[in-house]
Amino acid sequence: MDAVLRATAIYAALLVILRLSGKRTIGQITVFDFILLLVVAEATQQALLGDDFSVTNGVLVILTLVGIERLADLVSIRSTGMKRLLDGRPTIIVDHGRTLDERLERLRITPDEILQQARSSQGVERIEQIKYAVLERNGVISIVPRKE
Amino acid sequence: MTVTEPQRVGDLEIADDPAYERRALAVRRVFAGVWALIMLAALLGIFGTGPLSDARSADGPLRAEYERFTRFGTTTELSIAPGRADGRTNVAISRSYLHDMVIDDILPQPDGATVLPDRVVYTFDVQPPGDVKFFSTFREIGLQKATVWGPDGRRVSYTQIVYP
To answer: What pLDDT digit, counting tens, does each position of A94-140 carry?
Structure first.
């Protein structure tokens, strides 16, 4: 019983922390994000397993986490509100070659990062050549280039 | 090793197999049912710590409370109420049971222990309610059979399941 409850509590806590910290945390990972992820994983492992290192406990924790994730997927498919709560919403950050600065500031994204994504995915050279840039639910910036 | 011919679906060269997907979906649905059962069992304590795991065996005033299901390498608690527990008393535990575990702590600390061929007798100086607790860690998995004797020769026997 404790394994299931512990895993559920940790999942809920991580979900709240990661959602409140902003969607970029997962989508565009930097070296510092990576270090943070390693430290969080280490701290989480202690909380998940406690002093019980048995195979049974490990399997129960994994089953609980995977199961909650699948349940969350199912609920998200059926409820738009829940999907918004769990995954957030896509946000337009460039509109017809013009950066939406207020949104960029709120999302803590720089034009450099948009250009980096534009260059690597579309071979775009300048912001003006972008029709739309969207910060997607999964934290990745997608680029729609302007047609010449 | 044989090289399979690439499959075509319309203009796409793709290993698409709807029949396989349907079979995989059926298997996943069965797994979802099994998963739900395992979660329910875990919450009830079938895999240790929970209402179905808490167990008690008694013979008259002698009572032993233990975890019916426990896990390898984790601490489990055995609480014994010897019954006659005003002053000096003793409880005994079968040696075969103790052989497969490490006793981490005993509360209160016994005044002494005597090893007999089939059991270890612990002597305590306790006041009412007089329960004594053994905190121990199993070193073997599987069924573990225990017998606990009280000071007046009464005894209780029980079986624990130790998961890996």
So the answer is: 999 999 999 988 888 889 989 998 999 989 999 999 999 998 887 88
- Helical (H) or strand (E) element with A71: helix A55-78
- Residue B46 tokens read as 């079938």
Confidence of residue A22 (pLDDT cuts 50, 70, 90): low
Q: What is the pTM of this model?
A: 0.74
d(CA A87, CA A99): 23
B47, B51, B73 ranked by CB distance to A60: nearest: B47
Selecting from A1, A52, A53 the residue whose C-beta is nearest the C-beta of B42 gives: A1
What six digits make up the tokens of B26?
A: 């059926």
Written as one string, the DSSP assignment of B67-87 is ESEEETTSEEEEEEE-S--SE
Q: Are B112 and B89 in contact (CB under 8 A)?
A: no
3-state secondary structure of B10: coil
User: Which amino acid does the sequence have at B114?
Assistant: T
The pLDDT of residue A25: 43
Chain A residue set in contact with B, beta carbons under 8 Å:
1-5, 51-57, 60, 63-64, 67, 70
Q: Is A144 left (phi over 0), alpha (psi -120 to 50) or beta?
A: beta
CB contact under 8 A, B35 and A1: no
Residue-wise pLDDT for B89-101, tens only, equals 889 999 999 998 9
Q: Which helix (H) or strand (E) holds A6?
A: helix A2-20
To test the contact with chain B by mutation, choose from A49, A57, A64, A65 the residue with the greatest count of B C-beta atoms within 10 A, namely A57
Is the separation of the CB atoms in A61 and A49 below 8 Å? yes
Q: Is the preceding omega at residue B61 within 30 degrees of 0, hence cis?
A: no
* Contacts with A42 (C-beta within 8 Å, 6 or more apart), sequence order: none
Rg (CA), chain A: 19
Is 90 exceeded by the pLDDT of residue B37?
yes
3-state secondary structure of B145: strand
